[in-house]
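Notebook, p. 212. Picked up where the previous page left off. The plan for this session was modest: take the two constructs that came back from the sequencing core last week, fold each one, and keep the raw output in the notebook itself so nobody has to go hunting through shared drives later. Recording the first one now, exactly as returned: residue sequence, then the structure token string.
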Amino acid sequence: MLILAFDTATDRATSALVWDGEVLGELTSRPVTVLEDLDALLRRGGVRDTQVEGIAVGIGPGSFTGLRMGLITARTLSFAWGAGLAGVSTLAALAAGAPGALPVIDARRREVFALVGGEPVVVGPADLPVEQGRTHVGDGAVRYREEIERRGGEVPPDESELHLPHARFHAELARDFGAPDLVEPMYLRIPDVDKPRT
């Protein structure tokens, strides 16, 4: 199956073209250039958009704007190309790239998104369950490195590829490609725009 996968939930977008488990191309950039990246992957892979059978998109948690941008792009391409769409947790993709590590995404407002007991949660860095010697990956782990390492956790160097939710893992984890309107973002908290003003 030919899958085009991408994630725009964090400050660094990832995209990949994967055919039957083989990565034909992969790019990392900014979320605002994801359409250019997808076009470049198709061109480099010698693939027409009509050949794409499935689209795998990161559903977060992450940046509200990034998630909406990615999901709208994925839904539009899925509808236009007639390709099935599947959503994949950004945290799950991070975990797949670093087996045994705790994925941690910067949630801003002095909070992080993480997988705790297999469930996605939003917590303050001080409430993150840090295990002695366990590796922590993601931009949240980089931002709160001092807190994590002070409590005995480990964080790879800032420039490590382990901190990226690589789209090749989205393609690997994607299941049940279906109608574009069935895939929803994972927010974990109310977007600022929906909060009542006090």
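Okay, moving on. Second construct, recorded in the same format:
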Amino acid sequence: MNEVVLEALTGIGLSASAGLNAWIPLLAIGLLNRYTDLINLPSGWAWLSNGWVLAILAVLLAVEIVADKIPVVDHVNDAIHTVIRPTAGGLAFGASSDASTVTVQDPGSFFSSHQGIAVASGVLIALFVHLTKASARPVINTMTAGIGAPVVSTAEDVSSVGLSLIAIIFPILVLVFLVAFVFFVIWARKRIKQRRARKRAEKARRRGQISPAPASAWPPSDRPGQ
């Protein structure tokens, strides 16, 4: 397969991973560059494998792992990460587009010479995944009375780790994730619509219960003018 395509799939996988968890793909890139030959970052991105940067990313990851598993707190965390996750996605796509991996030995000139396109693509992909995740979480929390928050969050973290590794080692499998994600988006949109419809029905029912009764229904002694 054309190396530019594989390079694009690697970037897509890493930026989508950032949409689930901002710090996992950046930490994966840094650790794998520092301790393995699975990815080799160019000098401009070598700072991702700096010991201090890795330590900071690890601390931020620990904070997010805890915050994202607590109902209500996870909504606040998602709101804060509306900026952070797309930024991380842009960095992940930008770094991978100029790096050599086990599947892309010679990075294509397209992304290398158009870093702005790579970073912008990563931002948009991560933002879309993040918004889908953030909009689906309230539905899941409501359906499970909050019990599902830690379960779903753990699944997202595991998916982020797996997707990061797959994007670097077997980028062709990113296509499987994309297909699965499309089905999830369809499911999430359907559930959100159903939830909104129930809320509207509930509000209408409550308004009907508290609306004043017509004067003709009042007891004769209580009617106006009696």
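Notes on construct two before I forget. The chain has one domain: 3-184.
Flagging for discussion at group meeting.
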